[in-house]
Amino acid sequence: MKENEYTHGSFIPNGRIIKNEEIKFFPELGEVFENLKNDYGKVLFPLCTIDLQIINPTWLGKAHFILTFIDYSGETNSLEYFTDYCDDYSISFDKINDKYTLQADIRILEVSEGYEEFRNELELAYKRSKEGYSQGIVYEMLSDRIETNELIMQVGGKPMWTQNDETPKDPNGKELEFIGQVFGGYFFPNELEQDIFLFYSPEFNFFVQRFQYS
Question: Could you tell me if 4 and 16 are in contact, meaning their C-beta atoms sit under 8 angstroms apart?
Fold first, then answer.
């Protein structure tokens, strides 16, 4: 497969291609979060991990792409816990070595009773995909028979925004570095079709994920 050959909808990737051995799919929560809390596993679903040195040889540590369940019912108190980088369509993490710590109160991801059924369905779908991957029976795109892995839509380059450009800026007004993007629908078809755009601030040592929906 050649760089820029694969297309997602009308988009053409402009970053680098990535090999299977450069990705870890479905990492454990303890591999992703420094201060793991019980509620994390209910709303935060790690999809894959890459080394930051893939983007910049001087950056150390890991970058994690995390599918996030967000309740859009308006029936929670999540608005009280919004921050500059955490809201209905964004979540941020401080980087501690290879792991994350959530920058906001976990109650920002509170789930209402009406959304609990959807959350349960996503959790089950995540477990099925994770188990299937460990048994080598999930999608063709996860096969070791291919050199590159198309589940990572983009690594480096520029974001392929589904909607408007929502590149975050650090406290000094500088745009964060784009790490890459993945599409949740590739991991669990017909569940949560969430485009995840991951950014990093090497100066302030934190990550921001933006979410958009097709």
Answer: no
Torsional class of 180: left (φ above 0), alpha (ψ -120 to 50), beta (otherwise) = left
pLDDT of amino acid 21: 75
DSSP state, residue 73: S
Task: Report the predicted TM-score, pTM, of the whole model to 2 decimal places.
Answer: 0.86
Q: Is a pLDDT exceeding 90 seen at residue 136?
A: no
> CA 104, CA 101: separation in Å to the nearest integer?
9
Structure tokens at 69: 């369940």
Rounded CA separation 89/99 (Å): 22
Q: What does the block give as tokens for 4?
A: 């820029």
What angle is formed at CA 104 by the lines to CA 174 and CA 200, rounded to 5 degrees?
30
Can you tell me the distance from the alpha carbon of 106 to that of 115, in angstroms, rounded to the nearest whole number? 17
Residue 148, classed as helix, strand or coil, is strand
Calpha distance 188→129 (Å, rounded): 7
Strands 194-201 and 177-183: antiparallel
- Which residue's entry shows tokens 């090999």? 19
Q: Nearest-5° angle of CA 49, CA 54, CA 56? A: 125
Per-residue pLDDT tens digits for 1-30 = 333 333 333 344 556 667 767 888 899 999
| Residues 143, 176 contacting (CB under 8 angstroms) | no
DSSP H/E element including 182: strand 177-183
